[in-house]
């Protein structure tokens, strides 16, 4: 079932309604470009979908031709909103360039929030772990 969401660039599909009448999962399918011109509307629609869905939101990017920095910002804001609500968000049919841009923006925001990030342990712990083998 496709239901228009007050814009020609988005459609929504409800998957497996949960108890209580709210959908468990909502699928968004933006169409065309995600850019400065529609970022605010898309981001608000994504956040509304995350609020409404009881479990998850799937963003299917199959019909998106181009995503600029503002579109990436909206997608990353969706990741943050999903995390704050304890819900899952999934991106489908994402091109490589968009994926790389999202990862770079996510890393940048993580560094701003938490400072520099390293996957290494303190040197003392590293030596201890090395000596275990």
Write structural notes for this entry.
- The chain has one domain: STAS domain (Transcription Regulator spoIIAA), CATH 3.30.750.
- By secondary structure, it is of the alpha/beta class.
- Helix 1 packs parallel to helix 2 and helix 2 packs across helix 3.
- A 5-stranded mixed β-sheet has the order 1-2-3-5-7, covered by helices on one side.
Key terms:
two-stranded parallel sheet, 4 helices, globular, alpha/beta, Transcription Regulator spoIIAA, single chain, 133 residues, 45% helix, five-stranded mixed sheet
DSSP strand content: 15-25%
Spans where pLDDT lies below 50 across 5 or more residues: 1-10
**Distance, first to last CA:** 56 Å
Indicate the CATH class.
Answer: Alpha Beta
Fourth CATH level, the homologous superfamily? STAS domain
- Helical content stands at 40-55%
CATH architecture: 2-Layer Sandwich
**Number of helices in the DSSP assignment:** 4
Q: Which structural class do the helices and strands define?
A: alpha/beta
H and E order: EEEEHEEHEHH
Taking all Cα atoms into account, the compactness measure Rg is 18 Å
Largest sheet: 5 strands, mixed
User: What is the count of β-strands?
Assistant: 7
Give the integer mean of the pLDDT values: 84
Under CATH, the topology can be stated as Transcription Regulator spoIIAA
Overall 3D form: globular
**How many domains make up the coordinates?**
1
Strand order of the largest sheet: 1-2-3-5-7
């Amino acid at each position: 079932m496709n239901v228009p969401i007050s814009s020609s660039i988005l459609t929504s599909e409800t998957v497996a309604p949960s108890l209580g009448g709210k959908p468990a999962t909502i699928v968004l399918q933006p169409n065309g470009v995600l850019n400065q011109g529609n970022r605010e509307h898309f981001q608000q629609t994504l956040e509304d979908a995350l609020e409404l869905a009881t479990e998850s939101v799937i963003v299917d990017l199959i019909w998106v031709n181009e995503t600029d920095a503002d579109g990436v910002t909206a997608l990353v804001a969706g990741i943050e909103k999903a995390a704050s609500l304890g819900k899952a968000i999934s991106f489908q049919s994402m091109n490589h360039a968009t994926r790389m841009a999202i990862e770079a923006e996510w890393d940048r925001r993580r560094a701003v929030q938490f400072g520099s990030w390293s996957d290494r342990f303190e040197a003392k712990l590293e030596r201890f772990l090395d000596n275990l083998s």
